Amino acid sequence: MKGEGQKRARRVPGFAPVPAPDASLSGLGKGTLARLARLGIASKFDLVLHLPLRYDDETRLYALNEAPAGEPVLVEGTVVEADIKYRPRRQLLCHIEDGSGVLTLRFFNFYPSQLKQLAAGARVRAFGEIRHGFSGPEMVHPKYRLLHGVAPVAQALTPVYPTTAGLRQDDLRRLIARALADCDLEDTLSPALLEQLKLPYFREAVLLLHNPSPQVPQAALQERRHPAWRRVKFDELLAQQLSMRLHYQRRKSAGAPALRPRGRLAQALLARLPFKLTAAQNRALAEIRHDLAQPYPMQRLLQGDVGSGKTVVAVLAALQCVENGRQVGIMAPTEILAEQHHRKLREWVGGLGVATAWLSGSLTAREKREQLARVAAGETAIVVGTHALIQEDVRFHDLGLAIIDEQHRFGVRQRLQLRMKGARANKGAQPHQLMMSATPIPRTLAMSYCADLDVSVIDEKPPGRGPVTTRLFLDTRRGEVIRRVRDACVDGGQAYWVCPLIEDSEALQLKTALETYDKVRQTFPELKVGLAHGRLKGEDKARVMDAFKAGAIQLLVATTVIGVGVDAPNATLMVIENAERIGLAQLHQLRGRIGRGAEECDCILLYQEPLTDTARERLKIIYEQRDGFEIARQDLRLRGPGELLGARQSGEPLLRFADLDADLDLLEAARAAAGALLREQPDAARAHVARWLGTRHEFLKA
Ligand code: ADP
Ligand code: MG
Fold it and tell me: Which end of the chain is more exposed for a tag (fewer CB within 10 A), N or C?
């Protein structure tokens, strides 16, 4: 059929480029191979797994006067007349009739040869949506073909595949049909397991999906609820689970320095802290301590809501490494955060004789040279920094533990780079790795994408924290907000004023911050107002932060980037402008900056109308929820997993068929099956991974 629109390929985002095409596709031309590669197809088996986006129903032929409008239908008729019109724009019009009615086929893109084909008297079969236009019923750009003699209609639904420019549906169908005939479609799963899960055989499932019989309920196929779809989704989830577990096993067989818990430094720090660890912190710490003592690399994610106290746990872990004579690297995504960590660290361990260093992009060349020399010589035990930590020129003497804060803000490659720094120093043995995240990963994501990590959760906040009430204010009620800020700042109280968000332009963001600062100063002449934004120089930033912490600044105007990193227990109020434009995770993070003392706190979200549906929903969620896990779960629902995982997915294919929310039951089944399969039939497990991930398996190392 001609005139078929090219569907955008459902490419897997962040797909690693597929290397040399598999030999089994070698009969094809170079151009075709390149196009297939664009779709992520490198082998015949990839073709088998190239499943339809949707289906067209071309099994039923309608008479023109009975064909319903507004849904794709198959009709046929004899051409009465066809010609090219030039107004309002160049187009080919072809009028057909079938004795019951008439229909116009309209084409804006066409070849001159089509006019000849569609000469009066030719018989045409067309598939498309009928619309009742100005001049009667018409189909715009239908699929069509010319009929010669008897032409039976299709017996099955017609699959429509994701494709790419230059690769026609017909070509794809042909290639897939051949692959289905050539490939070994033997099952990788036992009949008993299939029976238990009520899933069909693999062969049965893919044959049905590529070539469904007219009896298959259409809705179940289109909505991917049919057992054949469920089988494919299950297989995909199983491959993901298996791949993660294989990596997990491989990691356990790699070497790492065993860092025994001696406890001298940790005890000294605990004795100096003005607080006691919570039970949740102690539990997480025990898990980490145990891992560090093993001779294979730890890869642990420390999860805990904003303010749950992850830093101190990480520092105690760092001390275990230092006691064993090895270095620790702590990497944070922003200067502010990294600097905050360094200051805290010096305050905590400076007196214990533990040398620390600070690496960032804002050091002068000389400072940097000095720091690098000390790090390379092993004179500094703990090195804190931003991305600067993984630059080429950084050499560790003996990195034993890499700590990554806000891990979702880093990519797989960056985390790997930090790990490799240690591997070089330790002659191949890998450092342990501790990742931290305040953006809790919902259970479904943790079960799928993070199944290769061990997870510790701090699910309890330090005691004695005041509750935070969230309030929504339409921008027109600024007056009231201003009164509340005044009230909050009397008697030594403090507040934050978070600037409106300007996306994608740092320069504009800076301008807005300065303007907001001026406005706020005019509004509150009696208050000491400070300004903090991402472009402040290191010292200035430190000065502002110190002043705010010490109470010398009462009202801190800040950009959203500063949100993470400030720690002022006296602040009881936060005003966030343009809250409707800020993502859920960030709102939750910002809000977490208050409620750190015993006082009751308010978080005021100023918003402007009109609100988009998503913005309205986000504000509702942040208003109603305070539990970070629930917020993350809702965020996942609103945004899809790609964004929530942040950079983690780069180089890692997201799921093509399964949907973590809708297919939770399959995910749980796949998780259970993966364990059993690896134990009982490791060969089948490997075959399953090879079938689904092929060469990509190698790219999945996080
Ligand atoms: P986050 O988990 O968001 O990184 P932080 O580690 O920054 O949280 O901790 C938030 C604040 O709570 C810090 O001021 C920290 O010193 C303090 N803190 C940490 N643990 C406790 C505790 N067990 N009791 C009281 N305060 C604590
Ligand atoms: Mg933190």
Answer: N
